[in-house]
Amino acid sequence: MKGEKSLNVKDKKITLVLDFIMLTAGAVIAAFAMEEFLVPCTILDGGMIGVSIMVNNLSGVSLSILTILFNVPFLIIGSKKMGLKFVVKSIYAMVIFSIFLEVFKGWANVTDQLLLAVCFGGVILGAGVGIVIRFGGCLDGTETVAIMLNRKFKWPVGRTVLIFNIAIYAIAGLLFGFDRAMYSLLTYFITSKIIDLVENGFDQAKAAMIITNESKEIAERIYQQLGRTVTMMEGEGLISGKKVVLYCVLTRLEIYELKRLINSVDASAFVVVSDVSEIIGNHIKRNNGIR
User: Fold this and answer.
1) Phi and psi at residue 276, in whole multiples of 5°?
2) Which of 6, 163, 192, 223 sits most deeply, having the most CB atoms within 10 A of its CB?
Protein backbone atom coordinates (compact mmCIF):
# COMPACT_ATOMS: atom_id res chain seq x y z
CA MET A 1 0.00 0.00 0.00
CA LYS A 2 2.81 2.42 0.88
CA GLY A 3 4.53 1.61 -2.40
CA GLU A 4 1.33 2.36 -4.34
CA LYS A 5 0.84 5.65 -2.45
CA SER A 6 4.39 6.81 -3.11
CA LEU A 7 3.98 5.84 -6.77
CA ASN A 8 0.76 7.86 -7.03
CA VAL A 9 2.44 10.88 -5.42
CA LYS A 10 5.36 10.54 -7.83
CA ASP A 11 2.99 10.30 -10.81
CA LYS A 12 1.14 13.42 -9.65
CA LYS A 13 4.41 15.34 -9.32
CA ILE A 14 5.53 14.25 -12.80
CA THR A 15 2.13 15.24 -14.23
CA LEU A 16 2.33 18.64 -12.51
CA VAL A 17 5.84 19.26 -13.88
CA LEU A 18 4.68 18.31 -17.38
CA ASP A 19 1.69 20.63 -16.99
CA PHE A 20 3.97 23.58 -16.23
CA ILE A 21 6.31 22.68 -19.12
CA MET A 22 3.34 22.72 -21.50
CA LEU A 23 1.99 25.93 -19.95
CA THR A 24 5.39 27.50 -20.62
CA ALA A 25 5.40 26.27 -24.22
CA GLY A 26 1.85 27.52 -24.83
CA ALA A 27 2.56 30.95 -23.34
CA VAL A 28 5.76 31.33 -25.40
CA ILE A 29 3.95 30.36 -28.63
CA ALA A 30 1.13 32.83 -27.89
CA ALA A 31 3.62 35.64 -27.13
CA PHE A 32 5.45 34.92 -30.42
CA ALA A 33 2.20 35.21 -32.37
CA MET A 34 1.30 38.47 -30.67
CA GLU A 35 4.61 40.29 -31.09
CA GLU A 36 5.69 38.89 -34.46
CA PHE A 37 2.35 38.92 -36.30
CA LEU A 38 -0.51 40.78 -34.63
CA VAL A 39 0.79 43.75 -32.63
CA PRO A 40 2.99 45.21 -35.45
CA CYS A 41 -0.09 45.25 -37.74
CA THR A 42 -2.38 46.68 -35.00
CA ILE A 43 -4.53 43.54 -35.04
CA LEU A 44 -6.18 42.94 -31.70
CA ASP A 45 -6.74 39.74 -29.80
CA GLY A 46 -9.95 39.45 -27.79
CA GLY A 47 -10.44 39.94 -24.06
CA MET A 48 -8.16 41.89 -21.76
CA ILE A 49 -5.17 41.27 -24.04
CA GLY A 50 -7.05 43.21 -26.73
CA VAL A 51 -7.67 46.02 -24.23
CA SER A 52 -3.95 45.94 -23.36
CA ILE A 53 -2.99 46.32 -27.04
CA MET A 54 -5.30 49.35 -27.39
CA VAL A 55 -3.91 51.03 -24.26
CA ASN A 56 -0.36 50.20 -25.42
CA ASN A 57 -0.98 51.93 -28.76
CA LEU A 58 -2.51 54.99 -27.11
CA SER A 59 -0.18 55.40 -24.13
CA GLY A 60 3.07 53.65 -25.02
CA VAL A 61 3.03 51.65 -21.76
CA SER A 62 4.67 48.25 -22.20
CA LEU A 63 2.25 45.56 -23.42
CA SER A 64 3.82 42.98 -21.08
CA ILE A 65 3.06 45.15 -18.03
CA LEU A 66 -0.48 45.93 -19.19
CA THR A 67 -1.42 42.27 -19.69
CA ILE A 68 -0.47 41.52 -16.09
CA LEU A 69 -2.19 44.63 -14.69
CA PHE A 70 -5.45 43.97 -16.53
CA ASN A 71 -5.64 40.18 -16.17
CA VAL A 72 -4.40 39.22 -12.71
CA PRO A 73 -7.13 41.16 -10.80
CA PHE A 74 -9.78 39.09 -12.59
CA LEU A 75 -8.06 35.90 -11.51
CA ILE A 76 -7.77 37.05 -7.91
CA ILE A 77 -11.49 37.89 -7.87
CA GLY A 78 -12.31 34.50 -9.31
CA SER A 79 -9.88 32.49 -7.17
CA LYS A 80 -12.58 31.25 -4.76
CA LYS A 81 -14.79 30.06 -7.60
CA MET A 82 -12.12 28.66 -9.93
CA GLY A 83 -9.80 26.95 -7.45
CA LEU A 84 -6.26 27.70 -6.35
CA LYS A 85 -4.56 25.35 -8.84
CA PHE A 86 -6.27 27.04 -11.80
CA VAL A 87 -5.33 30.51 -10.56
CA VAL A 88 -1.69 29.55 -9.91
CA LYS A 89 -1.34 27.97 -13.35
CA SER A 90 -3.00 30.93 -15.03
CA ILE A 91 -0.84 33.52 -13.26
CA TYR A 92 2.26 31.47 -14.13
CA ALA A 93 1.21 31.32 -17.81
CA MET A 94 0.48 35.06 -17.85
CA VAL A 95 3.87 35.89 -16.34
CA ILE A 96 5.67 33.72 -18.92
CA PHE A 97 3.53 35.29 -21.64
CA SER A 98 4.47 38.81 -20.48
CA ILE A 99 8.18 38.01 -20.22
CA PHE A 100 8.30 36.64 -23.75
CA LEU A 101 6.33 39.59 -25.12
CA GLU A 102 9.39 41.63 -24.12
CA VAL A 103 11.78 39.02 -25.53
CA PHE A 104 10.06 38.93 -28.94
CA LYS A 105 9.57 42.69 -29.03
CA GLY A 106 13.15 43.18 -30.21
CA TRP A 107 12.89 40.60 -33.00
CA ALA A 108 12.24 41.54 -36.62
CA ASN A 109 8.58 41.15 -37.57
CA VAL A 110 7.79 38.02 -39.56
CA THR A 111 5.49 39.90 -41.96
CA ASP A 112 3.77 43.23 -42.43
CA GLN A 113 1.18 41.79 -44.83
CA LEU A 114 -2.18 42.06 -43.07
CA LEU A 115 -3.74 38.90 -44.48
CA LEU A 116 -0.67 36.81 -43.66
CA ALA A 117 -0.57 38.30 -40.16
CA VAL A 118 -4.27 37.48 -39.61
CA CYS A 119 -4.04 33.89 -40.87
CA PHE A 120 -0.71 32.77 -39.45
CA GLY A 121 -0.95 34.93 -36.32
CA GLY A 122 -4.44 33.59 -35.60
CA VAL A 123 -3.37 29.96 -36.08
CA ILE A 124 -0.20 30.26 -33.96
CA LEU A 125 -1.98 32.26 -31.24
CA GLY A 126 -4.80 29.69 -31.14
CA ALA A 127 -2.28 26.87 -30.80
CA GLY A 128 -0.54 28.61 -27.88
CA VAL A 129 -3.73 29.55 -26.03
CA GLY A 130 -5.19 26.09 -26.68
CA ILE A 131 -2.16 24.42 -25.09
CA VAL A 132 -2.45 26.66 -22.02
CA ILE A 133 -6.18 25.88 -21.64
CA ARG A 134 -5.65 22.15 -22.22
CA PHE A 135 -3.14 21.99 -19.35
CA GLY A 136 -5.27 23.84 -16.82
CA GLY A 137 -4.57 27.55 -17.19
CA CYS A 138 -5.71 30.59 -19.16
CA LEU A 139 -4.14 33.74 -20.58
CA ASP A 140 -7.16 36.02 -20.35
CA GLY A 141 -9.15 37.06 -17.29
CA THR A 142 -12.29 37.64 -19.36
CA GLU A 143 -12.92 33.89 -19.50
CA THR A 144 -12.81 33.73 -15.70
CA VAL A 145 -15.45 36.45 -15.42
CA ALA A 146 -17.58 34.70 -18.06
CA ILE A 147 -17.41 31.42 -16.10
CA MET A 148 -18.40 33.21 -12.88
CA LEU A 149 -21.37 34.88 -14.61
CA ASN A 150 -22.38 31.51 -16.01
CA ARG A 151 -22.40 29.93 -12.56
CA LYS A 152 -24.40 32.79 -11.03
CA PHE A 153 -26.79 33.83 -13.82
CA LYS A 154 -26.53 30.83 -16.21
CA TRP A 155 -25.24 33.09 -19.02
CA PRO A 156 -23.45 31.04 -21.70
CA VAL A 157 -19.66 31.44 -21.39
CA GLY A 158 -19.03 31.60 -25.13
CA ARG A 159 -21.74 34.19 -25.71
CA THR A 160 -20.49 36.39 -22.84
CA VAL A 161 -16.92 36.36 -24.20
CA LEU A 162 -18.17 37.06 -27.73
CA ILE A 163 -20.26 40.08 -26.59
CA PHE A 164 -17.28 41.45 -24.66
CA ASN A 165 -15.00 40.99 -27.67
CA ILE A 166 -17.44 42.61 -30.10
CA ALA A 167 -17.49 45.66 -27.81
CA ILE A 168 -13.67 45.72 -27.83
CA TYR A 169 -13.53 45.47 -31.64
CA ALA A 170 -16.12 48.24 -32.00
CA ILE A 171 -13.95 50.54 -29.88
CA ALA A 172 -10.89 49.45 -31.88
CA GLY A 173 -12.74 50.39 -35.06
CA LEU A 174 -13.31 53.91 -33.76
CA LEU A 175 -9.69 54.27 -32.64
CA PHE A 176 -7.72 52.54 -35.42
CA GLY A 177 -10.17 52.24 -38.32
CA PHE A 178 -12.83 49.66 -39.03
CA ASP A 179 -10.57 47.70 -41.37
CA ARG A 180 -8.40 46.87 -38.34
CA ALA A 181 -11.51 45.92 -36.36
CA MET A 182 -12.61 43.54 -39.13
CA TYR A 183 -9.13 42.01 -39.40
CA SER A 184 -9.15 41.56 -35.60
CA LEU A 185 -12.57 39.89 -35.68
CA LEU A 186 -11.38 37.51 -38.41
CA THR A 187 -8.31 36.69 -36.29
CA TYR A 188 -10.59 35.99 -33.34
CA PHE A 189 -12.63 33.45 -35.31
CA ILE A 190 -9.49 31.70 -36.59
CA THR A 191 -7.98 31.64 -33.11
CA SER A 192 -11.18 30.26 -31.56
CA LYS A 193 -11.32 27.38 -34.03
CA ILE A 194 -7.67 26.45 -33.45
CA ILE A 195 -8.16 26.64 -29.67
CA ASP A 196 -11.02 24.13 -29.97
CA LEU A 197 -8.88 21.78 -32.09
CA VAL A 198 -5.93 21.92 -29.69
CA GLU A 199 -8.03 21.74 -26.51
CA ASN A 200 -10.23 18.85 -27.65
CA GLY A 201 -7.65 17.09 -29.81
CA PHE A 202 -7.58 16.57 -33.55
CA ASP A 203 -9.10 13.11 -33.18
CA GLN A 204 -12.45 14.55 -32.11
CA ALA A 205 -15.07 12.11 -30.92
CA LYS A 206 -18.38 11.54 -32.70
CA ALA A 207 -21.61 10.10 -31.32
CA ALA A 208 -23.82 7.86 -33.44
CA MET A 209 -27.46 7.12 -32.67
CA ILE A 210 -28.85 4.22 -34.69
CA ILE A 211 -32.53 3.24 -34.91
CA THR A 212 -32.84 -0.19 -36.48
CA ASN A 213 -34.73 -3.50 -36.49
CA GLU A 214 -31.41 -5.38 -36.47
CA SER A 215 -30.06 -3.93 -33.23
CA LYS A 216 -28.36 -7.06 -31.86
CA GLU A 217 -26.51 -7.89 -35.06
CA ILE A 218 -25.36 -4.29 -35.64
CA ALA A 219 -24.25 -3.91 -32.00
CA GLU A 220 -22.28 -7.16 -32.22
CA ARG A 221 -20.61 -6.17 -35.49
CA ILE A 222 -19.71 -2.70 -34.15
CA TYR A 223 -18.03 -4.41 -31.23
CA GLN A 224 -16.26 -7.02 -33.38
CA GLN A 225 -15.16 -4.77 -36.25
CA LEU A 226 -14.70 -1.37 -34.59
CA GLY A 227 -14.02 -2.52 -31.05
CA ARG A 228 -16.64 -0.13 -29.64
CA THR A 229 -19.24 -1.00 -27.06
CA VAL A 230 -22.83 0.07 -27.67
CA THR A 231 -25.55 1.31 -25.31
CA MET A 232 -28.98 -0.12 -26.16
CA MET A 233 -32.09 1.90 -25.31
CA GLU A 234 -35.78 1.25 -25.86
CA GLY A 235 -37.68 3.72 -28.02
CA GLU A 236 -41.06 4.00 -29.65
CA GLY A 237 -41.87 5.61 -32.98
CA LEU A 238 -45.18 7.40 -33.56
CA ILE A 239 -45.89 5.20 -36.60
CA SER A 240 -43.32 2.41 -36.54
CA GLY A 241 -43.92 1.37 -32.93
CA LYS A 242 -41.29 0.00 -30.56
CA LYS A 243 -37.65 0.21 -31.64
CA VAL A 244 -34.22 -0.38 -30.13
CA VAL A 245 -31.93 2.64 -30.27
CA LEU A 246 -28.17 2.07 -30.31
CA TYR A 247 -25.78 4.73 -29.04
CA CYS A 248 -22.02 4.61 -29.41
CA VAL A 249 -19.07 7.02 -29.32
CA LEU A 250 -16.27 6.67 -31.85
CA THR A 251 -13.73 8.76 -33.76
CA ARG A 252 -14.49 10.57 -37.00
CA LEU A 253 -12.09 8.22 -38.80
CA GLU A 254 -14.42 5.34 -37.93
CA ILE A 255 -17.59 6.97 -39.28
CA TYR A 256 -17.14 5.67 -42.82
CA GLU A 257 -16.67 2.11 -41.58
CA LEU A 258 -19.73 2.48 -39.32
CA LYS A 259 -21.91 3.57 -42.26
CA ARG A 260 -20.67 0.69 -44.41
CA LEU A 261 -21.29 -1.76 -41.60
CA ILE A 262 -24.86 -0.55 -40.95
CA ASN A 263 -25.78 -0.56 -44.65
CA SER A 264 -24.61 -4.13 -45.00
CA VAL A 265 -26.95 -5.26 -42.20
CA ASP A 266 -29.95 -2.90 -42.39
CA ALA A 267 -30.09 -0.42 -45.29
CA SER A 268 -33.28 1.10 -43.84
CA ALA A 269 -31.68 1.99 -40.49
CA PHE A 270 -31.97 5.63 -39.35
CA VAL A 271 -28.60 7.03 -38.23
CA VAL A 272 -27.72 10.39 -36.64
CA VAL A 273 -24.04 11.35 -36.23
CA SER A 274 -23.09 14.35 -34.07
CA ASP A 275 -19.99 15.98 -32.58
CA VAL A 276 -18.97 15.25 -28.99
CA SER A 277 -17.28 18.18 -27.26
CA GLU A 278 -16.14 16.29 -24.17
CA ILE A 279 -16.11 12.76 -22.73
CA ILE A 280 -16.04 12.23 -18.95
CA GLY A 281 -15.34 8.76 -17.61
CA ASN A 282 -14.18 5.63 -19.39
CA HIS A 283 -15.06 5.14 -23.03
CA ILE A 284 -14.68 1.38 -23.32
CA LYS A 285 -12.99 -0.07 -26.35
CA ARG A 286 -12.09 -3.68 -27.05
CA ASN A 287 -8.49 -4.85 -27.56
CA ASN A 288 -7.02 -2.26 -25.19
CA GLY A 289 -7.92 0.57 -27.53
CA ILE A 290 -7.92 4.25 -26.67
CA ARG A 291 -10.47 5.18 -24.06
Assistant:
1) -120, 120
2) 192
Res 204: pLDDT: 65
DSSP notation for the chain:
-HHHHHHHHHHHHHHHHHHHHHHHHHHHHHHHHIIIIIGGGT---SHHHHHHHHHHHHH---HHHHHHHHHHHHHHHTHHHH-HHHHHHHHHHHHHHHHHHHHHHTSPPS---HHHHHHHHHHHHHHHHHHHHHTT--S-HHHHHHHHHHHHH---HHHHHHHHHHHHHHHHHHHH-HHHHHHHHHHHHHHHHHHHHHHH-SS-EEEEEEEES-HHHHHHHIIIII-B--EEEEEEETTTEEEEEEEEEEEGGGHHHHHHHHHHH-TT-EEEEEE-S---S---BTTT---
AA identity, residue 108: A
Quick: pLDDT tens for 192-238: 888 877 876 655 678 999 998 889 999 999 998 888 889 999 887 77
Q: Do residues 94 and 68 lie in contact, with contact meaning Cβ atoms separated by under 8 Å?
A: yes
251 φψ region: left (φ > 0), alpha (ψ -120 to 50), beta (else): beta
- Give the C-alpha separation, 283 to 289, whole Å: 10
The arrangement of secondary structure in 205-275, i.e. its CATH architecture, is 2-Layer Sandwich (3.30)
Where, residue-wise, is CATH 3.30.70.120 in the chain?
205-275
**Is 125 in contact with 188 (CB distance < 8 Å)?**
no
Q: Residue 168 and residue 179: Cα distance in Å, rounded?
A: 14
What is the pLDDT, as a whole number, of residue 200? 64
